[in-house]
């Protein structure tokens, strides 16, 4: 029989007890050992020194010293196995050896970049969206990243706002579904897995409703509108277990979101029971001084921590002010402890206390640096995100044996631009991104020729290249025009008052059109643009957004028919900026226009048709789909019964293709006015040519609920319209009565 020393048995017993401790117990024990300054340090996030998304304010030596002193909880813009390991090593020199969290804006891909988020939303493909974030998490975690500042779940009805490119468009239902898919993709099977990263629901809240579409601007709206339109994606994110939230820059009805107790503490943390932590946006705590809401850093820090902002991104206020505020009795230590606890819990859940370097693995990074399977998926996803707006003369799909094709426009040979805004920059981007020129050239037959002329720059008045472009067009059988807005003209701080093609691009298009050559217009943008002349005069238009690393191949796949486009617009496209904000689910008013051309004494413009240029949910295909046999299980329902909606969809064209079948409802009479339509379901189906399928939806009273003027969330008995169709404007309608 073996004999063990008492010290050995105590050691084993201690290890066993430690392993059995819950994360909450471990956090409580660690908190009891922390000084006030160390607690404040956990609430601090600094940016790395090479790349920043806000005004850089770093003194690098000071930051490194603070990390070693335990006065930093997180770093952003630090990536790479060796880089994160070096920073983590500094953190482990601190007294309590609390590891850092590394955050990064992984918005639409990491090493492999996917379509911009608004383009992804145009796919209406939740599985592909989730998979794209799963891939992003795999790649980012291999480069040492623990945390992404995504998804952006802001509902946005104003395309002047540059950050529409980062979200899912104007609709709350669609935006919520996509947000949940993104969170699931990022967080995978759960934090602690080596390929899962923390997601961040942002920007809390109503950032997409900035007045005039001007970034960082105020938001002024009723609480009912806030709860009905802008908060549901965030509430759903909280219920789905998203790890973190990020504040928005704006004030909401006069209170900056960063110190808005109503949304942060009353709603998010108390009513919704959110268990993660809240990070400020870059410098937003300090910016409350310029808002006129705080007189100095001390007051800004006090208001932010009391309201419920847990981590200070780059304001440099919490470390400086919180210890003093606690000692002066202005901030109860319980608010600091709560914030620290929330952050420490996530560090334990990530497994960083067990192995601070678990995400800093050079071999994993090498494996994910050029993952060909990820690129293959990126190519497929890019093609699925493209929206066909016009194909009147059936020029598309283009034959690969077309003798001479001309590619004309400022984006034809652009490489880095294909990534769009909010991509993670790498030094070899220009070499690995597939340009439109290369993608198209690689698919043309060997006996065909691809001509090229830049024609103009993306945003200046230089017409000196027009002549060459015109001559190039004259030599071609078909001209592909690649126009739009520069890739950096949408995104944060990229609001625009003029949404037309930038520079002289429209003039170039008109000159090329004069040659009489068939034109395929490809529009590159991060938002809905205004292009009335083109929409009225060019027969073939493809909206290609910014598609990422495989952009050129994705575009060529659609142009030559390898992929039949099936994308649908996630935002309404206006005729002119004067219509903005414009969205499908508006109220009817007391004087609605009977038709788009009505002008007199109705809610209309005297100089413009009422309808949009392209409606929400719109998108064509190379084939045709016919809707028929629209049936409801009952026209009279009561209580918690379920309404079954059936419609037959047939592919009557010459190509296999995908169709997004959309379900809308309208509550005809209510204690508050209701939208003329509300999206309540959609299904993306694939039909071979000649095939048809019955598509079924289910509706329950839960789908009828809304907020009244007292913020009660319930449904009312009454009459409802049930609508099914190919977009928000082309629907079949039936009426039902639903009693309580």
Task: Describe what this molecule looks like in 3D.
With 740 residues, the protein is of the alpha/beta class. It has 3 domains: 40-104 and 146-313 and 330-358, TIM Barrel (Alpha-Beta Barrel); 371-579, Rossmann fold; 625-739, Immunoglobulins (Immunoglobulin-like, Sandwich), CATH 2.60.40. 31% of the residues lie in helices and 18% in strands. It is built from 23 helices and 26 strands. The strands form 7 sheets. The chain has a 6-stranded mixed beta sheet with strand order 11-16-15-14-12-13, with helices on both faces. The protein has a 5-stranded parallel beta sheet with strand order 4-3-2-1-10.
Any key phrases for this structure?
740 residues, alpha/beta, TIM Barrel, Rossmann fold, Immunoglobulin-like, six-stranded mixed sheet, 26 strands
Write the layout of secondary structure elements.
Layout: H1 6-20, H2 23-33, H3 36-42, E1 44-47, H4 60-68, E2 74-76, H5 81-91, E3 101-104, H6 117-121, H7 126-142, E4 147-148, H8 172-187, E5 200-204, H9 223-230, H10 232-239, E6 244-247, E7 251-252, E8 255-256, H11 261-271, E9 277-279, H12 288-291, H13 297-307, E10 312-313, H14 318-327, H15 333-350, H16 362-367, H17 372-385, E11 387-391, E12 404-408, H18 429-432, H19 436-443, E13 449-453, H20 466-475, E14 478-484, H21 505-513, E15 519-524, H22 532-537, E16 540-543, H23 551-559, E17 625-632, E18 636-638, E19 643-651, E20 657-667, E21 678-687, E22 692-699, E23 706-707, E24 713-714, E25 718-725, E26 731-739
Parallel strand pairs: 1-2, 1-10, 2-3, 3-4, 5-6, 6-9, 12-13, 12-14, 14-15, 15-16, 18-26
Antiparallel strand pairs: 7-8, 11-16, 17-19, 19-22, 20-21, 20-25, 23-24, 25-26
């Amino acid at each position: 029989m073996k004999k063990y020393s008492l010290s050995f048995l105590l050691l084993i017993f201690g290890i066993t007890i430690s392993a059995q401790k819950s994360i909450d117990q471990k956090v409580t024990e660690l908190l009891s050992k922390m000084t006030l300054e160390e607690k404040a340090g956990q609430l601090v996030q600094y940016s790395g020194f090479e790349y920043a998304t806000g005004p850089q304010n770093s003194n690098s030596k000071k930051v490194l010293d603070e990390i070693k002193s335990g006065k930093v909880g997180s770093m952003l813009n630090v990536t790479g196995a060796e880089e994160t390991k070096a920073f983590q090593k500094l953190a482990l020199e601190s007294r309590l050896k609390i590891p850092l969290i590394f955050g990064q804006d992984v918005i639409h891909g990491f090493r492999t970049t996917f379509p911009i988020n608004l383009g992804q939303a145009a796919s209406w493909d939740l599985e592909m969206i989730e998979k794209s974030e799963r891939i992003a998490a795999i790649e980012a975690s291999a480069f040492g990243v623990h945390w992404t500042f995504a998804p952006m779940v802001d509902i946005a009805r104003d395309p002047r706002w540059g950050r529409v490119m980062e979200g899912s468009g104007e609709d709350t239902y669609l935006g919520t579904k996509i947000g949940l898919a993104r969170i699931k993709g990022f967080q995978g099977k759960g934090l602690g897995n080596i390929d899962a990263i923390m997601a961040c629901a942002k920007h809390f809240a109503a950032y997409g409703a900035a007045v005039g579409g001007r970034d960082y601007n105020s938001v002024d709206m009723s609480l009912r509108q806030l709860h009905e339109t802008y908060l549901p994606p965030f509430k759903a994110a909280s219920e789905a277990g998203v790890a973190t939230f990020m504040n928005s820059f704006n004030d909401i009805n006069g209170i900056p979101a960063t110190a808005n107790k109503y949304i942060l503490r009353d709603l998010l943390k108390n009513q919704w029971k959110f268990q993660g932590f809240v990070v400020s946006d870059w410098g937003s705590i300090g910016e409350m001084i310029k808002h006129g809401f705080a007189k100095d850093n001390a007051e800004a820090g006090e208001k932010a921590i009391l309201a419920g902002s847990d981590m200070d991104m780059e304001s440099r206020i919490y470390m400086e002010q919180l210890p003093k505020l606690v000692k002066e009795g202005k901030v109860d230590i319980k608010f600091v402890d709560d914030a620290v606890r929330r952050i420490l819990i996530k560090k334990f859940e990530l497994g960083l206390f067990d192995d601070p370097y678990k995400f800093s693995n050079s071999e994993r990074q090498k494996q994910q640096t050029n993952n060909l399977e990820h690129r293959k998926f990126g190519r497929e996803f890019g093609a699925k995100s493209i929206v066909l707006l016009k194909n009147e003369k059936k020029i598309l799909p283009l034959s690969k044996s077309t003798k001479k094709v001309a590619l004309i426009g400022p984006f034809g040979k652009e490489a880095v631009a294909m990534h769009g805004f909010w991509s993670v920059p790498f030094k070899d981007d220009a070499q690995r991104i597939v340009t439109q020129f290369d993608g198209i050239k690689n698919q043309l037959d060997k006996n065909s020729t691809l001509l090229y002329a830049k024609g103009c720059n993306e945003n200046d008045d230089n017409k000196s290249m027009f002549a060459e472009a015109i001559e190039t067009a004259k030599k071609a059988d078909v001209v592909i025009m690649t126009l739009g807005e520069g890739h950096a003209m949408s995104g944060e701080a990229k609001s625009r008052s003029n949404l037309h093609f930038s520079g002289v691009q429209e003039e170039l298009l008109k000159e090329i059109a004069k040659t009489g050559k068939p034109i395929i217009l490809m529009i590159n943008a991060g938002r809905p643009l205004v292009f009335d002349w083109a929409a009225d005069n060019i027969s073939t238009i493809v909206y290609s957004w910014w598609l990422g690393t495989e952009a050129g191949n994705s575009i060529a796949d659609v142009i030559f028919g390898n992929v039949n486009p099936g994308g649908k617009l996630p935002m309404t496209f206006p005729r002119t900026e004067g219509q903005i904000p414009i969205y499908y689910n508006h109220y009817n008013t007391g004087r609605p226009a009977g038709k788009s051309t009505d002008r007199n004494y109705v809610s209309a413009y005297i100089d413009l048709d009422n309808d949009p240029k392209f409606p929400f949910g719109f998108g064509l295909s190379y084939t045709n789909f016919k809707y028929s046999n629209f049936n409801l299980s009952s026209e009279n329902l009561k209580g918690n019964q379920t309404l079954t909606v059936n419609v037959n969809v047939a592919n009557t064209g010459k190509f296999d293709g995908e169709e997004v079948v959309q379900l809308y409802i309208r509550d005809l009479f209510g204690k508050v006015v209701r939208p003329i339509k509300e999206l309540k379901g959609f299904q993306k189906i694939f039909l071979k040519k000649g095939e048809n399928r019955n598509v079924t939806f289910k509706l329950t009273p839960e789908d009828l609920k809304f907020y009244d003027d007292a913020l009660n969330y319930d449904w009312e008995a009454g009459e409802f319209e049930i609508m099914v169709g190919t977009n928000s404007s082309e629907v079949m309608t039936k009426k039902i009565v639903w009693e309580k």
